[in-house]
């Protein structure tokens, strides 16, 4: 596959964050950040949740000081422009993998949060030769997800996730790195939801061979933790863990605890050499 153009911003971000990379793919410019850029070996590729910019990933990325950690922003998030129409998951997967290739990640460990976890499932199936190990955090199988119970307030949490995410940002993520977050527009959030309308991963999850760790927060008000058990039941090589007293954004509110689970998973499942 040809490597597309890559440009790098020369301006350092606030808070000591890595500078931006801009990857051109399919006529789009996707923003990316790379932590520990000089590290060799298999990199980690991270896909963010809906409506949040790459800056929020800093606490988790900093836990992996020995690994190259690449975070890629999808259309409508952060500084990455929204598209005129919602893009299907298969096309988003292609763009994400092409951007990772431009950043030197031809094969990688993949981590996805929330809707980024849905995209990570699509990538792990669509590009099975690229993903060594898969971590799914606070995510679900799409429209086949297990809902909260039928209490009205809990259904409203699932139907209005942006409001819950913003509340969790305020209550769980108080910290200086939040000063650099880029707020989404309602149109961009709606477009991201529309991309996965009618999408489900249950039909192809049994074909995903990558060793997988599924993580969920016990007090996730957007995606019930029971969805971790559903995903691990359909994945042939998966295990799941429920983090007590953790909310939807636990990779950022509790990065140390999240990273410990992921590192133990990596230690238990060393990746085999993969064919180019």
TrEMBL record:
Pfam families: Abhydrolase_6. InterPro entries: AB_hydrolase_1 (IPR000073), AB_hydrolase_fold (IPR029058), AB_hydrolase_sf (IPR050266). SUPFAM superfamilies: alpha/beta-Hydrolases. Keywords: Hydrolase. GO terms for molecular function: monoacylglycerol lipase activity. The keyword Hydrolase applies. One of its GO terms (biological process) is acylglycerol catabolic process. GO terms for cellular component: membrane. Gene3D superfamilies: alpha/beta hydrolase. Residues 44-260 form the AB hydrolase-1 domain. PANTHER family: MONOACYLGLYCEROL LIPASE, MONOACYLGLYCEROL LIPASE ABHD6. This is Alpha/beta fold hydrolase. It comes from Henriciella mobilis.
